[in-house]
Predict the 3D structure of the following.
Amino acid sequence: MSKRRILAIALCLPSAGLLALLLSPAAAVATYNLAGVVLLAVLLVLFALYIRIERQEVQALTTSYRQLQDESLDINKRAIDAEAILDGVPDPVIIIDKDFGVTSINKAARRALDADGDGSEIATCYRALYGLDGPCDPSSHPCVLKTGESCKQIQTKIGEDGRKRLIEIRATPLYDEFGEVMGAVEVLHDLNEQEKIALKLQRAREDAETADRARTEFIATMSHEVRTPMNAVLGMADLLRLTALTRKQRSYVQILESSGNMLLSFVDNMIDFATLESGDLVLRKESFRAADILERVLQIMGYQAYSKGLELAGAALNDRDIELVGDFERLRQIMINLVSNAIKFTDDGEVIVSVDVDTDSGDQTNLLVSVADSGIGMSEDSAARVFAPFTSVDRQFGRDEHGSGLGLATSKQLVDLMGGSISVESQPGRGTTFFVSVPVERVAGAAALFEEGRRALSNRRLLIVHQNPKVSATICRCVEAWDVCCDAEASADRVAGRLEAASESGYPYDGVVIDVDTRRADCLSLARAVRKQGDLPILLLTSISQPLEVGDVSSIGRIRCVNKPVLPSEMRHNLFRILDVDAADSPRSDAAPARSLRILIAEDNPINRNLLHNLLSSLDFEVEAVEDGPSVLSVLREKAYDLILMDCQMPGMDGDRVTRIIREGQDFDCGQPVIVAVTAHVSEKHREKCLRAGMDDFLAKPIRLDTLKSGLRRWSFMADSRRMQLPDTMAAVFPEGGSLRERLQDRSGVVSDEVVGDFIDLFLNDTASRIEVLQTALQQKDLRTMRRECHALKGACLELGISGLGSCCDELRQASRDNRLEDLPSALQRLTAEFARVKPVFEAEKNQSA
C-alpha cells in the first residue's frame, strides 16, 4: 500500500464520522464511544504503515545514492585508466569524433604535434595531422569517417635533426550501437629500419607488378602492330604463289614466307612467355599428322638454314599413318624454337629433325621429336642453364649470337604444360641433340591415306647422291616409308660405276636423286653425266637460297627439281611424276572445297581488305567488303550474307558492338550469319571476349591461305545450320511435294489417322534418341558409332523423302569416315538444327490427323 492511499483513508475516516453525526445525532451519540476507539486504532495502524514505507524509501534512496557514487568513482577511474593507457602508448594516438574534432590525445601525440601551446593545433584531425584548414580531399587519400573502413598511408616528415622520417598513419573507425561511424582512432607510427626495408620490398613488388602489367600491354600492342602489316606481307605472298612463276621466283616467294614466319614465331614466343608466366595459357586440341608438323617446320626454317650454308633435313617415321590430336600450333612452335637454336649455333654441317609416334601406347600416345645439330655443342654447366629465360645457350666460345633468349625457355614451359618432357645431350665441339616427348591422343580407327601410292612405289629402287651421310640417311628414311629401296652414295665420282653395276645385276635403279652442291663450279655436271649413261629419271635437290636457272635444268631433259629442305609430300609428288606412276596422291580429306558462301568483309585497313577480298575471290566465293561497323549494319538491311569476316577494331563502331546488334536481331530479317573475328590480338582473353560478344569463331592475323581454306569448310557447315533454323513449310521438308500421310499411303495402302500419329511418334522419338547417341559418340571420338547411327537415320529419311535431314546424315557420316574431327561438331550441329526444323512440321501433321 502506498503513502497516498494511507493518507486518503486517514482523512476519510473522520469525515465519515462527522457526516454520520450530522445525519443522525442520536445514533451517533450512542455509538460515539465505540467509534472513537475503532477510529483511533485505525489511525495508529495507518500511521505505522506510513512510517514504515517512508523508512523503506529513505533506505532505497540511500542505496541508490551510494550506487551512483560508486559508478561515478568507477567512471572517473576508467577515464583515468583510459587516459593512462593512451599516455602509455609510445606512438602518438588521437581520437576524433564524426565532425573531425579531436576528443582525446595522448602524451606522445601532444609532443609529436606540438600541442603544448594554446591547443589550436589539435582542434581537428586535418589540422593536427596534415596542416590543412579543411577536411582532406578524398582523391588524395581515403577518409576513414567517409568510407567506414580502416586505412593507412605513409608520410615523409623532416625531424628536428633535419633527417627525413617515414610516418605511417593508421585510422580505425569507431561505431555506435546502431553501427554508424561515431569517430575514429588515428595512430602515428615512426617506421624503424626493419619496417622501412619491408616497405621498400612492398613498393618494389608493387612496381614489379605494375611493370609486368605494362609489359603485358606492350607485348599485346606490339603483337597487334606487327601482325597487322605481316598480314599483308604473307597474304600477298600467298596470292603471288598462286600466279604463274618461274622456279627462281617461287624460291623468292618461299624465302619471303620463311622470313615472315620466323618473325611471327619470335612474336609468338614473347606472347606465350608472358601468358605462361601469368598462368592464362590454354592448350587447344586439333587433329594433325606427324608429317604435317614436320613439313611446316621445315618450310619455315629452310631459308635460315640454307642461307647460312647448312643442310636441313627431316623424317617422320610413321608417315601420315597415324592421326593425332593435340595443340598443333604449340608443338610447331616448340620445334621451330629447337631448330632455330640449332641453326644459330651451327656453322658447318647439318641439322636433322626426326618425328615419331609411340605406336605401342594405345589411344593415349606420345609424340617423339629430336633435333640434332653438328654445331659447337656446350658444356654441362651451359646445358643445365639452357632452358632459363633470357640466357644465351653458350657464350664460352665468345660468340656474338643474337636472339630473344626466350625460345628454349618458352619451349620448356609449353612442354611442361602439356605434361611432357624435354632434355638435351651435348658435348663441346660435338654438336647438340634435343629430345622432346609430349603426350597426345591417337584417333581410333584412322586409316592410312596413301596406301595406293605406297603400292605404286613399292619395290622401286633409287640412288641418293649426297655428300652429307646424315642428310642422305634421313632422305632414305623418308623414301623407304613408301616401300622404296634406297641406296646412298657420297662421292659423285662413284655414281657412274654404281649405276652400271646395278644394271648388270638385273636390278637397275629406277631413278637418281642428286643433291646440287652450289659451291661447285658446275653444279649440274653430275646430272649431265648421268644423262649420258641413259634416260634415267633425275630428281635434283636445290638450295632455296640459290635456285637454278630454268634453261640449265630443262636442257638436261627428264629432270625435276625439289627445293631443300626436302618435304616428304613434295618428294612423293615428284617421284610419281619422274617415275611415270599411274597412281596419284590421294587427296587429303581436309582439302575438300567449302560450299558456296555469300561473304561480307568488314575491315577498315584498305590493304588488308583488298588482300582478304583477293584471297576469297581466288577460291571462287561471292565477296563484298565494307570499311566500318555502321556500313555492316546498313548492307545487312538490304542483303543476306552467310558469313561475315569482322575486324574487331574499326572506326565508329568496333566489331564487338556490331556483332551484339546483329545478334539482337533488330531490323534484320535475313537470319543470323556466321560471324568470325578477324584480329591481330591473339590472346585467350581477347578470344573469349569475341565469343562472348556473339562471334562464332576466331581468325588470327596474318591470314594464310591454308588456314582460310580450313576455316571456310568449317564455317560453311555452320552457315548451313543457320539456314536450317529459319522458318519453313512442309514443302521445304518434302521438296517433291505431298505430305507424310500421302507418302505412307503410297508405301502401305490405306493409312488411318492413328497409324500416322503412331508413326510420327516413333520417328521423332527414334531420331531424338539417335542424336543423343551421336552427341555422346562425338565426345568420346567414337567414329564407328557415328557412322552406324548416321547410316540408320539416313535409311529412315530415304523412306520418307526427307532430303534435308538425309543430306545432313551423309555429311556427318562422311566427316566421321574421313576422320575430320574439326568438322564433326558443326556437322552434328547442322543435323540437330535440321531435325529441330523438321520436328514442328511432323507434329503439325500429327495434330491434323488427331
Observations:
- The chain is about 50% helix and 15% strand.
- The chain has six domains: 3-69, 90-191, 283-447, 452-585, 591-714, 730-849.
- Confidence is low (pLDDT under 50) at residues 394-398, 583-593, 726-732.
- Residues 741 and 756 are 7 Å apart (CA to CA).
